[in-house]
Amino acid sequence: MTQPTATIIELDSGKAAPEQEQTCKSPVLPLVISELCYEANQQRLLKYVSCTLTAGNSTIILGPNGAGKSLLLRICQGLIAPASGNISWSGLNPVQARPYVAMVFQKPVLLRRSTAANIDYALAARGVPRKQRRERVTEALELTNLNHLARRSARVLSGGEQQRLAIARAWVTQPEVLLMDEPTSKLDPGASYAVEQLISAIRKQGTKVIMTTHDMGQAQRLGDEVLFLNRGRLLEQTPAKIFFERPQSKQAAAFISGELLY
Question: Residues 71-76: contacts with CB within 8 Å, 24+ apart?
Fold first, then answer.
């Protein structure tokens, strides 16, 4: 049976992505996802998802609850295995690509250590020498504006501070790609703004961001392209501006207008 295919509109390769100041050749991009399926409890939650994600732009994954957004990120990171299909990080499977790909979860999982020690741990786990770790921890604290909280226990930080710490811990490993699962979903507007500013700074340094969100404004501010999922199917892969102005599917149009999708 022929499977439905997503509407794919290419980004203009002749125009630099917004806010993207550095673009370098990545050992794990492009990311090629082919006919990806995932099943749980005899239900198919991802259905023949196929797309190619390249360097030099940020990708926002949109869709209603249960569309498969977080699931897709976790499969790309190699945390769970698909039922069928293939994921290729420029020829590497998700496990092989892990040194180049980091993930930030919706709810940060932090160690019972100080802010600085949480960041240092990520580097130690990668085998980075102690002297280099000190320098990179300082750099990460400065980037995330957590310098003044370096010695404070991570567990007593505010929600926004904890999320910035989780991003710092991921970013300090110098990933080529940063996967982010709704990083501002539980934050107040001020904390969300701080996280958005941090994501923009990371993008400017050349890191590819692939992020899920329910915030339409955030998707427009941070996204160069949109993947739109509904009921486990990828219906659109479209430049963000076109997605919001001229959605190619009736489901996307309904989602943008605030209608419930079933």
Answer: 71/38, 71/45, 71/46, 72/36, 72/46, 72/229, 73/103, 73/179, 73/181, 73/210, 73/212, 75/36, 75/38, 75/46, 76/31, 76/33, 76/101, 76/179, 76/210
155 conformational bin, left if phi > 0, alpha if psi -120 to 50, beta if neither = alpha
User: Which residue(s) pair with 226 in the sheet?
Assistant: 60, 238
Give per-residue pLDDT as tens, 86-99.
Answer: 999 999 999 999 99
pLDDT in tens, 34-61: 999 999 998 999 999 999 999 989 999 9
pLDDT exceeds 70 at position 13: no
How far is 210 from 243, CA to CA, in rounded Å?
16
